[in-house]
Amino acid sequence: MLETLDVETGARPTAAVIWLHGLGADGHDFEPIVPELELPEALPVRFVFPHAPPQPVTINGGAVMRAWYDVYGLGGVRREDDAGVRRSQASVEALVARERARGVPAARIVLAGFSQGGAIALQTGLRHPERLAGIMALSTYLPLASTLAAEASAANRAVSIFMAHGLHDPLIPVERAMLSRDALRKAGYDVEWHEYPMEHAVCAEEIAAIAAWLRRVLT
């Protein structure tokens, strides 16, 4: 089981958000955003912030850092490590199972993530066998896209997907995110899309949109 940081907005949470950080960060990265969401007292939520395991990352010269999967260069294009993506998918599935054991049904669980974490949220959520409350994918893209049609779960065909991206993102170009958005929509998924004049980051307007979406899918 991954080590996690848990933040509860009230006693006896009735919903959970499993929120995965980006490459080189850790579970503390998005902890400060919880109070900024200003969720209502009547909606007690457990935010689960896992720490990815440290591993060498090829595009960073093999430096060891927290990562959900390796990323390597192939013909000048950044590519994800298939086996690593699937290992992290299994780790997130274990966290979902833990929340269910703690009394939160799958339909009250959101999978969320930023950058690499968002890719794993999409990878896991779209394949999860039980209907989830939603998938939040920030500044990211759809990994292993060619396998989705064969592996997608029927239970989450209608799940609400929140995607947001910076128009000036130098790490994951917005065009790549738009291709993922369009592929998901073509496959019949409900994607709520937001774009902001920022780089590889999160802004105040985005946090407000996230808060509104969370209230909608968890209420």
Topology, pairings included?
Layout: E1 4-8, E2 15-20, H1 33-37, E3 45-50, E4 54-57, E5 63-66, E6 71-74, E7 77-80, H2 82-101, E8 109-114, H3 116-125, E9 134-138, H4 148-151, E10 160-166, H5 174-186, E11 190-196, H6 204-218
Parallel strand pairs: 2-3, 2-8, 8-9, 9-10, 10-11
Antiparallel strand pairs: 1-3, 4-5, 6-7
Task: Describe what this molecule looks like in 3D.
- The chain is globular and about 45 Å long.
- Strands 1-3-2-8-9-10-11 form a 7-stranded mixed beta sheet, with helices on both faces. A two-stranded antiparallel sheet has the order 4-5. It has a two-stranded antiparallel sheet with strand order 6-7.
- The chain has 6 helices and 11 strands.
- It has one domain: Alpha/Beta hydrolase fold, catalytic domain (Rossmann fold, 3-Layer(aba) Sandwich), CATH 3.40.50.
- The chain has helices spanning 33-37, 82-101, 116-125, 148-151, 174-186, 204-218; strands at 4-8, 15-20, 45-50, 54-57, 63-66, 71-74, 77-80, 109-114, 134-138, 160-166, 190-196.
- A hairpin with a 2-residue loop joins strand 6 and strand 7 (77-80).
- The model has no long low-confidence stretch (mean pLDDT 96).
- The two termini are 29 Å apart.
- Helix 2 (82-101) crosses helix 3 (116-125).
- By secondary structure, it is α/β, with parallel strands linked by helices.
Give the SSE string: EEHEEEEEHEHEHEHEH
Q: Mind telling me which CATH architecture this is?
A: 3-Layer(aba) Sandwich
Cα(first) to Cα(last) distance is 29 Å
| Helix/sheet category | alpha/beta
Q: Helical stretch count? A: 6
Low-confidence stretches: none
Strand order of the largest sheet: 1-3-2-8-9-10-11
Summed up, the domain count is: 1
The whole-number mean of residue pLDDT values reads: 96
CATH topology: Rossmann fold
Name given to the CATH homologous superfamily: Alpha/Beta hydrolase fold, catalytic domain
Tell me the β content.
25-35%
Q: How big is the Rg?
A: 16 Å
